[in-house]
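Sample A.
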Amino acid sequence: MIDVRGTGAVDWMDNTSLLLPANTPIIKVRDESQWKEWARAIIGINEISAFSPPDPDDYDLWHEWAEEFNYAVDL
């Protein structure tokens, strides 16, 4: 997984997208404020949802959600 520390939201999402299953439609994020939209789409992917990732709506800060996502999901 991509370490959250020392990276911005857009870079983390772009790099994490590269680790997702092949042929997965990915939302291209251009602004950090879109992180919840991206996260909702990602946790909706069958291969990802099987890990029971955290719900982004339970978090105010992207990096807190991303850290929990990294713990939950094995990519």
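Sample B.
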Amino acid sequence: MTQYLKENGFPVDLEFTTPQKYEDKENSFYGFKCDVLVDGHHYDELYFTDYRSRAFYANGFLAAYNWESEGKYKWRGKEKTHRENGDLDVQVGDWIVDKYDKIRKIWSDEDVTLPYEDIIRHATEKEAINHKLINKLVKDLYELKESNRSAWDTYGSELCAGDMSRKEKVIEDKIDKLR
């Protein structure tokens, strides 16, 4: 059993039970399994092949625990968003805005769903926090504009253009407030 105890300066009692051999033939995994206890209560199960994995898990868990308990939110924005040659400096973990006005996080260098030439700028902290709602509103706005354009092509001046643009403006204002 591995223990990280409050009496030794840790914020919680984090314990790993004695590892047991574990096999998952369906996924071809052969290693060990142990239970993770936080303040004596079952929290998670850890599957690993290297005994050091428990230390890595504990390091990440305790760092996240301290971050949450202190209420600190560290924004990963950049002071310098462009390189010296003028190109946008984008790395894994950055939040970006693409040419379709969608807010996304870059998860890997080989992200095939994100053509790097479509990146317009880095997202702000507020945009990153509200990215799900902003992306939904951007999609709704796009669909509304397409619907309005199609209706205008079909019915022409029989429709109220003011009402159409007012509905679009309402969604645009919501997006601007969230940004």
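B remarks: The chain has four helices and eight strands. The beta strands are 2-4, 14-16, 20-24, 29-38, 41-48, 95-98, 103-105, 119-122.
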